[in-house]
Amino acid sequence: MFAKLKAAGASISNPSGPHLLTTNPISQHFDIGTQICTAGPELVWKVYQATRKSDGKEVSIFAFEKRLCDRLHRPRRKDSITEIMKKSIKHLEVYRQPKLILTVLHGLEECSDTLAFASEPVLASLANILSFQVYSNAISNSRNETSQNNISKPPNAKEYNFIDFEIKYGLKQIAEALDFLSQQVYHHNICPSSILVTKLGNWKLAGMEFLIAADKNDRVACGAWTSRISKLSQPDLDYLVLKQNLDV
Protein backbone atom coordinates (compact mmCIF):
# COMPACT_ATOMS: atom_id res chain seq x y z
CA MET A 1 0.00 0.00 0.00
CA PHE A 2 1.00 3.60 -0.36
CA ALA A 3 2.31 5.73 2.44
CA LYS A 4 -0.16 8.37 3.45
CA LEU A 5 -0.19 11.16 0.91
CA LYS A 6 0.99 14.58 1.85
CA ALA A 7 -1.82 17.09 1.88
CA ALA A 8 -2.16 18.37 -1.64
CA GLY A 9 -2.84 22.03 -2.26
CA ALA A 10 -6.61 22.26 -2.34
CA SER A 11 -7.84 24.15 -5.37
CA ILE A 12 -11.36 23.54 -4.16
CA SER A 13 -12.27 25.42 -1.04
CA ASN A 14 -15.49 26.94 0.16
CA PRO A 15 -15.33 28.39 3.67
CA SER A 16 -19.09 28.88 3.71
CA GLY A 17 -19.64 25.29 2.60
CA PRO A 18 -20.35 23.81 6.04
CA HIS A 19 -23.32 26.18 6.37
CA LEU A 20 -24.88 24.10 3.63
CA LEU A 21 -25.21 21.29 6.16
CA THR A 22 -26.26 23.16 9.29
CA THR A 23 -29.85 21.97 8.86
CA ASN A 24 -28.85 18.42 7.96
CA PRO A 25 -28.85 15.91 10.87
CA ILE A 26 -25.36 14.78 9.89
CA SER A 27 -23.97 17.96 11.47
CA GLN A 28 -24.99 16.54 14.87
CA HIS A 29 -22.46 13.73 14.45
CA PHE A 30 -19.53 15.45 12.70
CA ASP A 31 -17.49 18.65 12.86
CA ILE A 32 -17.47 19.69 9.22
CA GLY A 33 -14.65 21.71 7.67
CA THR A 34 -14.01 23.14 4.22
CA GLN A 35 -14.89 21.65 0.84
CA ILE A 36 -12.05 19.59 -0.61
CA CYS A 37 -13.40 18.11 -3.84
CA THR A 38 -16.42 17.09 -5.91
CA ALA A 39 -17.70 13.79 -7.31
CA GLY A 40 -20.63 11.99 -8.91
CA PRO A 41 -22.78 12.85 -11.95
CA GLU A 42 -21.89 16.34 -13.19
CA LEU A 43 -19.75 16.55 -10.02
CA VAL A 44 -22.84 17.44 -7.95
CA TRP A 45 -21.61 15.81 -4.72
CA LYS A 46 -19.63 18.36 -2.70
CA VAL A 47 -17.10 16.68 -0.43
CA TYR A 48 -15.95 18.18 2.87
CA GLN A 49 -13.23 17.26 5.32
CA ALA A 50 -14.67 16.40 8.73
CA THR A 51 -14.11 14.62 12.03
CA ARG A 52 -16.52 12.45 13.98
CA LYS A 53 -17.55 14.11 17.24
CA SER A 54 -17.64 10.89 19.24
CA ASP A 55 -14.01 9.90 18.71
CA GLY A 56 -12.29 12.47 16.46
CA LYS A 57 -12.01 10.02 13.55
CA GLU A 58 -11.27 11.71 10.22
CA VAL A 59 -13.95 11.27 7.55
CA SER A 60 -15.22 12.89 4.36
CA ILE A 61 -18.77 14.26 4.16
CA PHE A 62 -20.58 14.08 0.82
CA ALA A 63 -23.38 16.62 0.36
CA PHE A 64 -25.94 17.01 -2.42
CA GLU A 65 -27.95 20.24 -2.69
CA LYS A 66 -31.52 19.59 -3.74
CA ARG A 67 -31.77 23.10 -5.18
CA LEU A 68 -29.57 21.92 -8.06
CA CYS A 69 -32.71 20.23 -9.37
CA ASP A 70 -34.77 23.43 -9.33
CA ARG A 71 -33.95 24.21 -12.94
CA LEU A 72 -35.68 20.98 -13.97
CA HIS A 73 -39.06 22.59 -13.10
CA ARG A 74 -41.05 19.38 -13.37
CA PRO A 75 -41.53 18.03 -9.82
CA ARG A 76 -41.34 14.40 -10.94
CA ARG A 77 -37.93 14.92 -12.52
CA LYS A 78 -36.65 16.71 -9.42
CA ASP A 79 -37.83 13.88 -7.18
CA SER A 80 -36.40 11.31 -9.59
CA ILE A 81 -32.90 12.80 -9.42
CA THR A 82 -33.02 12.99 -5.63
CA GLU A 83 -34.02 9.32 -5.53
CA ILE A 84 -31.14 8.42 -7.88
CA MET A 85 -28.70 10.09 -5.47
CA LYS A 86 -30.21 8.26 -2.50
CA LYS A 87 -29.98 4.99 -4.36
CA SER A 88 -26.26 5.48 -4.99
CA ILE A 89 -25.62 5.66 -1.23
CA LYS A 90 -27.71 2.56 -0.59
CA HIS A 91 -25.77 0.65 -3.25
CA LEU A 92 -22.44 1.60 -1.64
CA GLU A 93 -23.70 0.07 1.60
CA VAL A 94 -25.19 -3.04 -0.01
CA TYR A 95 -22.14 -3.90 -2.16
CA ARG A 96 -19.53 -3.36 0.51
CA GLN A 97 -15.93 -4.29 -0.22
CA PRO A 98 -13.59 -2.15 1.93
CA LYS A 99 -10.55 -2.67 -0.29
CA LEU A 100 -12.30 -1.80 -3.55
CA ILE A 101 -15.56 0.12 -2.96
CA LEU A 102 -15.79 3.51 -1.23
CA THR A 103 -16.56 2.75 2.43
CA VAL A 104 -19.60 4.45 3.95
CA LEU A 105 -19.01 5.24 7.64
CA HIS A 106 -22.34 6.98 8.29
CA GLY A 107 -25.41 6.40 6.15
CA LEU A 108 -27.81 8.78 4.48
CA GLU A 109 -29.06 11.81 6.38
CA GLU A 110 -31.66 14.05 4.76
CA CYS A 111 -33.37 17.36 5.31
CA SER A 112 -35.42 19.65 3.08
CA ASP A 113 -32.27 21.15 1.51
CA THR A 114 -29.66 18.40 1.31
CA LEU A 115 -28.67 14.76 1.26
CA ALA A 116 -25.47 13.79 3.07
CA PHE A 117 -23.39 10.80 4.15
CA ALA A 118 -19.91 10.16 5.54
CA SER A 119 -17.17 8.03 3.99
CA GLU A 120 -13.57 7.13 4.64
CA PRO A 121 -11.26 10.16 4.09
CA VAL A 122 -10.77 10.98 0.40
CA LEU A 123 -8.33 13.26 -1.37
CA ALA A 124 -10.35 13.93 -4.52
CA SER A 125 -12.27 12.32 -7.33
CA LEU A 126 -10.22 11.20 -10.31
CA ALA A 127 -12.13 13.83 -12.31
CA ASN A 128 -10.76 16.59 -10.07
CA ILE A 129 -7.17 15.37 -10.43
CA LEU A 130 -7.40 14.86 -14.21
CA SER A 131 -8.88 18.34 -14.56
CA PHE A 132 -5.73 19.74 -12.97
CA GLN A 133 -3.58 17.60 -15.28
CA VAL A 134 -5.33 19.04 -18.35
CA TYR A 135 -4.87 22.56 -16.98
CA SER A 136 -1.17 21.94 -16.24
CA ASN A 137 -0.57 20.55 -19.72
CA ALA A 138 -2.27 23.56 -21.29
CA ILE A 139 -0.03 25.91 -19.30
CA SER A 140 3.09 23.92 -20.25
CA ASN A 141 2.19 23.95 -23.94
CA SER A 142 1.31 27.65 -24.11
CA ARG A 143 3.91 29.69 -25.98
CA ASN A 144 4.04 32.86 -23.92
CA GLU A 145 2.96 34.47 -20.66
CA THR A 146 -0.02 36.20 -22.28
CA SER A 147 -1.51 32.96 -23.50
CA GLN A 148 -0.88 31.40 -20.09
CA ASN A 149 -2.82 34.19 -18.41
CA ASN A 150 -5.78 33.41 -20.65
CA ILE A 151 -5.97 29.86 -19.31
CA SER A 152 -8.11 29.62 -16.18
CA LYS A 153 -7.76 26.83 -13.66
CA PRO A 154 -11.02 24.81 -13.57
CA PRO A 155 -12.92 25.38 -10.31
CA ASN A 156 -13.06 21.64 -9.62
CA ALA A 157 -9.36 20.98 -10.24
CA LYS A 158 -7.32 19.28 -7.50
CA GLU A 159 -3.56 19.78 -7.60
CA TYR A 160 -1.95 16.35 -7.49
CA ASN A 161 0.47 14.46 -9.73
CA PHE A 162 0.38 10.66 -9.97
CA ILE A 163 3.49 8.55 -10.33
CA ASP A 164 3.30 5.67 -12.83
CA PHE A 165 2.91 3.02 -10.15
CA GLU A 166 -0.10 4.80 -8.64
CA ILE A 167 -1.85 4.80 -12.00
CA LYS A 168 -1.15 1.12 -12.66
CA TYR A 169 -2.19 0.08 -9.17
CA GLY A 170 -5.27 2.30 -9.27
CA LEU A 171 -6.46 0.80 -12.55
CA LYS A 172 -5.91 -2.66 -11.08
CA GLN A 173 -8.08 -1.76 -8.09
CA ILE A 174 -10.91 -0.50 -10.30
CA ALA A 175 -10.74 -3.64 -12.46
CA GLU A 176 -10.99 -5.77 -9.32
CA ALA A 177 -13.94 -3.69 -8.08
CA LEU A 178 -15.79 -4.24 -11.35
CA ASP A 179 -15.06 -7.95 -11.19
CA PHE A 180 -16.43 -8.03 -7.63
CA LEU A 181 -19.64 -6.27 -8.70
CA SER A 182 -20.11 -8.30 -11.89
CA GLN A 183 -21.30 -11.31 -9.91
CA GLN A 184 -24.51 -9.38 -9.21
CA VAL A 185 -24.61 -6.06 -11.08
CA TYR A 186 -22.93 -3.97 -13.78
CA HIS A 187 -21.77 -0.49 -12.83
CA HIS A 188 -22.82 1.23 -16.09
CA ASN A 189 -21.11 4.56 -15.34
CA ILE A 190 -17.36 4.04 -15.15
CA CYS A 191 -15.87 7.51 -15.47
CA PRO A 192 -13.44 9.75 -13.54
CA SER A 193 -16.20 11.29 -11.41
CA SER A 194 -17.17 7.81 -10.16
CA ILE A 195 -13.67 7.03 -8.86
CA LEU A 196 -12.42 8.43 -5.55
CA VAL A 197 -8.76 8.59 -4.56
CA THR A 198 -8.43 8.11 -0.80
CA LYS A 199 -5.89 9.81 1.43
CA LEU A 200 -4.03 6.50 1.57
CA GLY A 201 -3.65 6.57 -2.22
CA ASN A 202 -6.19 3.85 -3.02
CA TRP A 203 -8.62 4.19 -5.91
CA LYS A 204 -12.14 3.33 -4.74
CA LEU A 205 -15.16 2.81 -6.96
CA ALA A 206 -18.29 4.84 -6.17
CA GLY A 207 -20.86 6.55 -8.39
CA MET A 208 -23.39 3.73 -8.16
CA GLU A 209 -26.39 5.69 -9.41
CA PHE A 210 -27.00 3.57 -12.50
CA LEU A 211 -26.33 -0.06 -11.56
CA ILE A 212 -27.88 -2.72 -13.80
CA ALA A 213 -28.67 -6.24 -12.59
CA ALA A 214 -26.32 -8.84 -14.07
CA ASP A 215 -27.95 -11.25 -16.53
CA LYS A 216 -26.96 -14.92 -16.36
CA ASN A 217 -26.64 -14.86 -20.16
CA ASP A 218 -24.29 -11.85 -19.98
CA ARG A 219 -26.81 -9.62 -21.70
CA VAL A 220 -27.07 -6.02 -20.54
CA ALA A 221 -30.21 -4.04 -21.35
CA CYS A 222 -29.46 -0.31 -21.41
CA GLY A 223 -31.85 2.51 -22.17
CA ALA A 224 -30.91 5.02 -24.84
CA TRP A 225 -29.13 8.18 -23.72
CA THR A 226 -31.26 11.21 -24.54
CA SER A 227 -30.95 14.98 -24.45
CA ARG A 228 -34.62 15.19 -23.46
CA ILE A 229 -33.87 14.59 -19.79
CA SER A 230 -31.25 15.89 -17.38
CA LYS A 231 -27.66 14.65 -17.56
CA LEU A 232 -27.93 14.06 -13.81
CA SER A 233 -30.36 11.22 -14.39
CA GLN A 234 -28.19 9.39 -16.97
CA PRO A 235 -24.70 7.87 -17.21
CA ASP A 236 -21.92 10.17 -18.46
CA LEU A 237 -22.25 10.26 -22.26
CA ASP A 238 -18.50 10.84 -22.73
CA TYR A 239 -17.76 7.39 -21.28
CA LEU A 240 -20.57 5.26 -22.67
CA VAL A 241 -19.65 2.41 -25.00
CA LEU A 242 -19.87 3.17 -28.70
CA LYS A 243 -22.80 0.82 -29.21
CA GLN A 244 -24.94 2.70 -26.70
CA ASN A 245 -28.01 4.04 -28.46
CA LEU A 246 -28.57 7.79 -28.59
CA ASP A 247 -31.89 9.55 -28.73
CA VAL A 248 -31.13 13.20 -29.25
Précis, in short:
By secondary structure, the chain is of the alpha+beta class. The chain has helices spanning 75-94, 126-141, 145-149, 164-181, and strands at residues 30-39, 45-52, 58-65, 104-110, 114-119, 122-125, 185-186, 195-198, 203-205, 212-213, 225-226, 246-247.
The strand count comes to 12
Overall pLDDT metric: 83
Q: CATH class, please?
A: Alpha Beta
User: Which stretches of 5+ consecutive residues score pLDDT under 50?
Assistant: 1-11, 13-17
The name of the CATH superfamily reads Phosphorylase Kinase, domain 1
Structural class: alpha+beta
Judging by the overall fold, what is the CATH architecture? Answer: 2-Layer Sandwich
Helix fraction bin: 10-25%
The end-to-end span amounts to 45 Å
CATH topology: Phosphorylase Kinase, domain 1
How much of the sequence is in beta strands? Answer: 15-25%
Shape: globular
Topology pattern, helix = H, strand = E:
EEEHEEEHHHEEEEEE
Strand order of the largest sheet: 1-2-3-5-4
Domain unit count: 1
Compute the CA-based radius of gyration.
Answer: 18 Å
Total of DSSP H or I helical runs spanning 4+ residues: 4
Main pleated sheet: 5 strands, antiparallel
Write up this protein.
- It is a single chain.
- With 248 residues, the protein is an alpha+beta fold.
- It has one domain: 2-Layer Sandwich (Phosphorylase Kinase, domain 1), CATH 3.30.200.
- Helices cover 24% and strands 23% of the residues.
- The protein has four helices and twelve strands.
- A five-stranded antiparallel β-sheet has the order 1-2-3-5-4, with helices on one face. A three-stranded antiparallel β-sheet has the order 6-8-9. Strands 7-10 form a two-stranded antiparallel sheet.
- It starts with 29 loop residues before the first strand and ends with a strand.
- The N terminus is likely disordered.
